[in-house]
Amino acid sequence: xxxxxxxxxxxxxxxxxxxxxxxxxxxxxxxxxxxxxxxxxxxxxxxxxxxxxxxxxxxxxxxxxxxxxxxxxxxxxxxxxxxxxxxxxxxxxxxxxxxxxxxxxxxxxxxxxxxxxxxxxxxxxxxxxxxxxxxxxxxxxxxxxxxxxxxxxxxxxxxxxxxxxxxxxxxxxxxxxxxxxxxxxxxxxxxxxxxxxxxxxxxxxxxxxxxxxxxxxxxxxxxxxxxxxxxxxxxxxxxxxxxxxxxxxxxxxxxxxxxxxxxxxxxxxxxxxxxxxxxxxxxxxxxxxxxxxxxxxxxxxxxxxxxxxxxxxxxxxxxxxxxxxxxxxxxxxxxxxxxxxxxxxxxxxxxxxxxxxxxxxxxxxxxxxxxxxxxxxxxxxxxxxxxxxxxxxxxxxxxxxxxxxxxxxxxxxxxxxxxxxxxxxxxxxxxxxxxxxxxxxxxxxxxxxxxxxxxxxxxxxxxxxxxxxxxxxx
Length: 474
Prior knowledge:
alpha+beta; 12% strand
């Protein structure tokens, strides 16, 4: 018993080879706590911590329902969750590998053999048969003592891989929530544009009717009638692509939420306004963003796993010590399996050391070190890409807001022109066709404004994705 305690103590206090992971090296100045986003407009953004469920700030219950449905039922999220369970099971396996394994065996041998079948010398008559019985039950135990920490490093690597899988699950949730919101905004934009196209077609039809009447009286040319009829046909033809895009977007939303095509047609068929966004968007700071972004966290955990893998391969260069023990009860009679006098024990310590492997172990260590360097480069790339993504999204967000304000001004000007044209028509100064053309111009300006609003709101969604928001348990 004393020697078992000594071995256990050595196993617990043995050294752990390979580098200890101390976290990644700093990559950019933006990782400092006092850093701020370079492209943030203080009139549009706030350094306050952002909302995890950013879509709730858009005040659209249907959008919230779709995103919550997607996070609960999306196949992509379900696949990522399965990978997390697989990685966690691998951690349990690696931890169990550090402990002894014990198995139970039972053996019963009853032999009735013809003479000479075992090539043994016979006694007595040549036709005497060979009869033998043997019964045994026992426990087999084996334990490879982790003197150099290879198994501890393997458990550390598996735990880091599990953390990376959880970060990848969060990344899938971030991407999914942003994609659902972006498609929802596109749907509402398309519905608004379809309504305006129909309104424009109705105005063109009215203008064509008036022009045909004028042409019949000789007050207008045939060329004007043909030109306006061509424009009307073009406008009516533009309705079909918009209707097709709406159907495609509805099907895409169904796919993202884990539903079959057409599942959301009834709920989303009625046109609705494009969701609004807060007047001031909370964005936090770059350091917090990097800690929050799942892709950066996954890259950091992959770096930790690769660092631990070096220790696994270094430990293979040293001798491995294992112990196998057997305890058995048995004999020629079945009653011997419960007879304590028939106990047999066997203890087999074993040392294995591939000291002459012609560089194989060294090559494995070099591979793991190169893998660690690759993981560090991937982490550096993830940090820089995250910062670039956030800064680009902030810049685009500000530019599209300015574009939207310009579109609003154009709409106001076009509406004023339409009112003036209507007043001049009422006074008999201009024909009705001029008033209708002014109304069409106002409708076209409104269409441009709707497109600008859709782009602006989608840029808000992209900004939330760039900030790493939208995953559970934040």
